[in-house]
Design a protein that fits this description.
InterPro entries: Ribosomal_bL32 (IPR002677), Ribosomal_bL32_bact (IPR044957), Ribosomal_zn-bd (IPR011332). This is Large ribosomal subunit protein bL32. Belongs to the bacterial ribosomal protein bL32 family. This protein is α+β, with helices and mostly antiparallel strands. The chain has a domain of 32 residues. The protein has 1 helix and 4 strands. A hairpin with a 4-residue loop joins strand 1 and strand 2.
């Protein structure tokens, strides 16, 4: 079984966990549907890049 050669410091342990935070999704206002939507995603009304792609 592998055993670490040295004790991991508190700073190194905390640095490992810094990237696990919750991120806010990028929202943009869609002029075609008048709603907010996530970037590079189809809006709830079926619009993508100003035109309707889904009914």
């Amino acid at each position: 079984m592998a055993v670490p050669a040295r004790k991991t410091s508190k700073a190194k342990k905390r640095a490992r966990r810094t990237h696990q935070g919750i991120k806010v999704p990028n929202l943009s206002f869609d002029l075609a549907s008048g709603d907010y939507r996530r970037s590079h995603h189809v809006s709830l009304k079926g619009y993508y890049k100003g035109r309707q792609v889904k009914e």
